[in-house]
Amino acid sequence: MQRRGFTIVELVVVMTIMAILLALGIFGVQKSIVNARDSERRSDVETIARGLEERYKNGNQRAVYTGSDVLTKSGQYPGNVEMWHASGFDNANFSPRQIPGGYMTDLLSGTSGQSLTSPSGGSLDLSCIWACNPLSTSDPAYITNYVQSNVMNNDKYVYVPSDANGNICCCSGCVRFELYYKNETNGTLMKVSSKNQ
Questions:
Q1: What is the pLDDT of residue 41?
Q2: Is the separation of the CB atoms in 116 and 126 below 8 Å?
Q3: Are 152 and 9 in contact (CB under 8 A)?
Q4: Low-confidence spans in the chain with pLDDT less than 50
Q5: What is the DSSP letter of 121?
Q6: Which of the 8 DSSP states describes residue 168?
Q7: Is the peptide bond before 78 cis (omega within 30 degrees of 0)?
Q8: 139 CB neighbour count, 10 Å cutoff
């Protein structure tokens, strides 16, 4: 009795079909992973936004600004100075002047270290645009470049507080904010805005 093996053509056809199925499987898994990261980013930013709204209602419960301008009161969002202090930076105008390790999760109630970190990780994923002198919205190129670079290239969450005139808010009088994050699926910049506009 003679046994018949597979022909080269049959082997090539089977291997081609297996390669196609494998490629489709890998593509499906990669798409699922990207969708999961996008979902995590959206959830993180919504959690941060809720924390900012709580800060608006309750003020800063961990530190007091001792300078002539009351930065830490309720009825406003944190400016860049307060956000940097909450990140652990020393500032002589706050009491206490520094909290080692920061107190961001206390300032933004309901957040955690995980919700402040994008899926790719990093040292400071909740970034704020620094401006000692508020930057007028008549020069949006700086904001656009900063946001694009940090969100799209570095996968950071960017917090932009602004005053009633639309200027970047470094200190007090921050009446609105925008939080930016990226949508990896379609490569777009996403934004969540404050309830108070």
A1: 93
A2: yes
A3: no
A4: 132-135, 137-138
A5: -
A6: B
A7: no
A8: 9
